[in-house]
Amino acid sequence: MISTRRLNKYYKGAEQFHALKDVAIDIGKGEFVAITGQSGSGKSTLLYVLSTLDTDYEGDIRINGNLLKDMNSNQLSALRNRDIGFVFQFHYLLPEFSVLENVCLPAMKLKQYTPAQIRERAAEKLSLLGLKDQITKKASQLSGGQQQRVAIARALINDPVIIFGDEPTGNLDSANAKMVFDIFKELSLAHKQTIVIVTHDPEIANKADRTISLRDGIVVSC
Predict the structure, then answer these.
(1) Which helix or strand (DSSP H or E) is residue 211 part of?
(2) CATH classification at residue 72
(3) What residues make up the domain containing 184?
(4) Cα separation of 116 and 119, whole Å?
């Protein structure tokens, strides 16, 4: 599902910084993988490059069989909308929109379904995440744990084959962090969706199927 070869990332400034160094990894369909490492190790950089949010790199990345460097910006955008879901540490919900409206947004952009079908699909995802009774509420009326589950529903609306998470449990208490982890685990087991998250939480990392650990931009274990 995800493969990299000779992947290098440089930050160019007064002094060039080599952030990722010859990264070569393979992640299979339905795997739940945690990317770990100390601050500055390159783990978030790797996640953003893998997820196509950062396209300034050297080397090869394949996502679901697609060689990214052969794709133009429009093709990459279509790939992101169709095949990739994102969950960040902060939920980035629109507070003035309802829960249902927030979840619908990526599907409205993709335009693969009618508005009625999109609303039905959004309701199904919210029900799956235990939020059926919160659909009409404004996003700002929910608790932090509920808001993060809405963000997961939003990431799921287009049935992506890969879900990337950047510290998705970082702002949650232990009970809500466990709930979010259990949701990701269920998605990988029951729905065969590939889950790749960056985390500082050793408990979350230890429960993943596999851990990719970075130090100074180098993969030290995978």
Answers:
(1) strand 210-215
(2) 3.40.50.300
(3) 2-221
(4) 5
